[in-house]
Amino acid sequence: MSVSAVKERLIAALGSDYVHDSHEMRLVYSYDATPGMQAMPDLVVMPGSTEEVQAIVRICNETKTPIVARGSGTNLSGGTCPVEAGVVLTFQRMNQIVELDEENLTLTVQPGVITQEIIEYVEAKELFYPPDPSSMKISTIGGNISENSGGLRGLKYGVTRDYVLGLTAVLANGEVIKTGGKLAKDVAGYDLTRLLVGSEGTLGIITEAILKLIPLPETKQTVLAIYEDIDKAAQSVSAIIANKIIPTTMEFLDQATIKVVEDYAHVGLPTDAGAVLLIEQDGAPEVVARDMEAITKLCTEMGATSVKRAGSEEEANALRSARRAALSACARLKPTTILEDATVPRSKIAEMVRAINEITAKYQLDICTFGHAGDGNLHPTFLTDARNKAEMHRVEQAFEEIFAKAIELGGTITGEHGVGAMKAPYLEWKIGESGIQVMRAIKTALDPNNILNPGKLFFEKKEVVS
Amino acid sequence: MTREAVKEKERTAIQKAFQESLDEDELMNCMRCGFCLPACPTYLETKSEAASPRGRIALMKAVYDGKMLPDDDVQAQLDLCLGCRACEPVCPSGVKYGHLLEQARGAVTRNKKQSLKEKAVRRLAFKDLFPNKKRMRQVSGLIRLYQKSGLQKLAEGTGAIKLLPEGMRNMQHILPPVVSARLMKHRPEQLKHVVPHYQVSVSKGQRQYDLQAATVEQEHMASTQASSPVKRVAFFAGCLMDTMFLTTNDATMKLLQMAGCDVVNPQTQACCGALHGHSGELAGARDLAKRNIQAFEDLQVDAIVTNAGGCGAFLVDYDHLLKDEPEWAERAKAFVEKIKDISVVLLESGFLDKVQLSLPSQKVTFQDSCHLRNVMKTSEAPRTLLKAIEGVEYHELKEAGVCCGSAGIYNLLQEEMANQLIDRKMRHVQAIQPQTIVTANPGCLLQMKLGITRAGLEDQMQAVHLADFLLEAAEAGRGS
Ligand SMILES: Cc1cc2nc3c(=O)[nH]c(=O)nc-3n(C[C@H](O)[C@H](O)[C@H](O)COP(=O)(O)OP(=O)(O)OC[C@H]3O[C@@H](n4cnc5c(N)ncnc54)[C@H](O)[C@@H]3O)c2cc1C
Ligand code: SF4
Ligand code: SF4
């Protein structure tokens, strides 16, 4: 069916205010935060309810029109790039916090709510929603759930998956399923909640979520450990965990990252240091004090030149915000920043850092490395310029080597940013042929017409036509 | 040629101008992280990516790259942008959005037929009025006549006022009482610092000042004290400020004197050019910049003081404005380094140690001037001053850094969005219920007054400029 016929049907279902096909609107929904990826959708639609989503999905399924769900478009894997055109579905109208249940400690939300709004809303009630991706001031919960996003507090508290109790989703055939619920335990059949979490918009459209909350920790302390070289910082991470201390946060920044971040944020980071670790612990005051003392001692033993404690919550917050800006701040140096998300077992972090530096030198590239060191999740970020084709090619080669190394160390190709279109060619490296088969079987069963975010996760080798 | 063909030709010309004048590196520097979205007033109101900084940059880049023509939608989106630059300080990549916007608007303005309304407003503002001090005085004089003669009351009383378009109708309610033409014409050129004769009575645990010796009441205070000044500063008067808001300018200069500064007010200075620049009239802006650099460069002052964030932010950008004229580069740089807001200069000169500030007890809040905050990077100094006033209970306004919708002549051209923004602002104000809203820029001041009127709160609160408020506090403090 032609695009204009689909458009007419969508307008009949939603009203013309919420169906757009101007060049302008199609262009601004053609990209996400992934460098070098852009593809125009045919239409942009803005549903206001689960029922409207159902109507849209039915029309698209009948007409075999691709649907790309989109939160705030901050993903880094081409997840919301409409690579096969079709309809982009935005959730800015479905952005309400539906219910706070203080007896069951749950929060029910629509997919378009901004992550930070959730965090602030529950903290005002002395409750805690831990997953805090660096993009939280603009990312949506729908995007977080669909990417299974991590954050600065992942080390101690886990990732988004660990806080999703139930979902309402519209399947490709237009049916609604409700998975899980306000339940601490539930083993009725397959765990469909977990299947949908991290499914990158390829299995269903999430229209509501029940999130798990926990009590807000009593206190929090923040330190900045400063090192002359990266190796010592990486060894400190392993030493702290080996000593059975799990801090809330253990973030790593190398010298190049420290410089760009300080240039932006002016929070007093030591720009001559080889690396820093931003470490936080929360909990009961006695525990926090005891852990922090042990952490400080371990860092010093491992060669930290100093371990500074943030004097106030404002100061600690400034440090956290500065860390969150790291990726974008890298673009101060060169226009194109290509970051990776390789993750290794925590014990291998020092080895991984060394390998990254060797590979960078081999391909003569500029790099900033930072990341969630405590999770073994690093973001080596190559600084380049999309206009320099030769260098872009070397970046690609370097990444392949980094992926190979990560897998060799027992790691994965992506810790939290998702496969999307970017890493689809490498998915098989991690999960093998049988893994791909299982995933394809699930996809085909739920979305036989392949309308939900096509071109993502699975790599279709295209015939090369010359 | 058909109308469509004419349009097509115009669009192609605009696109070519984009390719010639937009900074490609700056376009590339946006890595599309979206961190700027929550800071953007038009995004907050519309929740549309197209009305966000990231979206606008993507549109500019698409036009630049030849992927789309600058059609009506794209142009409307550029018009809807307030130019408030709230997207800049929050951008970790350091994208200079303001420059891109200026370049894009310049490309449109140079190649586009404007609507009649826009043409009229622009012509009045950019060619006839702002660059011409005498005209500014005449217009202000007419407004004064209107206010003084009872015509205003008559117009309001008879309903004749309804004949004016809403934008204008609202404006005339909120304009400040204008002073006489004589006062506007005879501006002081040199003012000496005043040395307050204060005695510190430590016994009470609080410093007390006796300002008796200060000749504050004299119209243009020319106290000639023997001691040396803390600073020698020049005052940037600004065209709107030096006519319609003349009393605020006087207050500013008095405050500087009280802080121990000698003040020079060169009469050769001109309008800053901000309104021109922000609307894409770059040639006009450059001429004014040169006139101002000349007017100030030989004065040997420590700082050039502004009391209007909108002007100040444009002045600190003169080096960028004149970047293609090498013979002006050094001179522009020297000029730019001296530009400071009154609040910063007062604090630097030890104003709070010299002057006791006191007012009848009241709740006060502060609405940032976008350009003061985002471009001059001044947001703490005004708050520090306000919090130092005895009797003031300071409350931080939610979204104080979000534009109020004034934005130069934006509120005349984009009435709908401007009204949405001021109403949003007033909802946050209502949550505090202050007696006074303080601002640091004339446009913001008028817009906040408009907001108060629209919300029907005239009896409950006032909006004032920081300088007027501080002077009132200093004069009251002297008595206490
Ligand atoms: C500067 C920066 C820092 C970042 N830091 C982190 C970090 O610390 N940790 C981390 O994990 N990630 C991080 N990210 C990546 C990204 O922000 C996260 O993946 C985030 O969860 C995406 O949210 P979004 O609302 O922008 O989703 P989008 O980018 O809009 O969408 C992401 C995916 O979710 C799907 N989707 C969105 N909504 C729905 C829905 N309602 N139903 C079904 N599918 C849906 C989309 O189709 C897409 O596949 C960062 C990104 C940037 C730019
Ligand atoms: S914050 Fe800066 S880099 Fe990020 S999208 Fe906005 S302008 Fe682009
Ligand atoms: S200048 Fe203001 S209105 Fe324009 S894009 Fe930036 S934040 Fe938005």
UniProtKB/TrEMBL annotation, chain A:
Record keyword Flavoprotein present: yes
Transmembrane portions of the chain: none
Keyword Oxidoreductase included in the entry's annotation: yes
Cofactor section: FAD
Pfam families, sorted: FAD-oxidase_C, FAD_binding_4
Gene Ontology cellular component annotations, sorted alphabetically: glycolate oxidase complex
Keywords from the named record: FAD, Flavoprotein, Oxidoreductase
InterPro entries attached to this UniProt entry: FAD-bd_oxidored_4_C, FAD-bd_PCMH, FAD-bd_PCMH-like_sf, FAD-bd_PCMH_sub2, FAD-linked_Oxase-like_C, FAD-linked_OxidoTrans_Type4, GlcD, Oxid_FAD_bind_N
Span of domain FAD-binding PCMH-type: 37-216
Gene Ontology MF terms in the entry: (S)-2-hydroxy-acid oxidase activity; FAD binding
Stated family: Belongs to the FAD-binding oxidoreductase/transferase type 4 family.
Protein's name in the database: Glycolate oxidase subunit GlcD
Protein source organism: Pullulanibacillus camelliae
Gene: glcD
Automatic annotation (TrEMBL), chain B:
Xref: Gene3D superfamilies: Alpha-helical ferredoxin
EC number: 1.1.99.14
Pfam family, one: Fer4_8
Single GO MF descriptor: metal ion binding
Entry's cofactor comment: Binds 2 [4Fe-4S] clusters.
4Fe-4S ferredoxin-type domain location: 18-49, 72-95
Catalytic reaction(s) noted: (R)-lactate + A = pyruvate + AH2; glycolate + A = glyoxylate + AH2
Alphabetic keyword roster: 4Fe-4S, Electron transport, Iron, Iron-sulfur, Metal-binding, Repeat, Transport
Cofactor(s) of this protein: [4Fe-4S] cluster
Origin: domain of life: Bacteria
Physiological role: Component of a complex that catalyzes the oxidation of glycolate to glyoxylate.
Protein name as it appears in the record: Glycolate oxidase iron-sulfur subunit
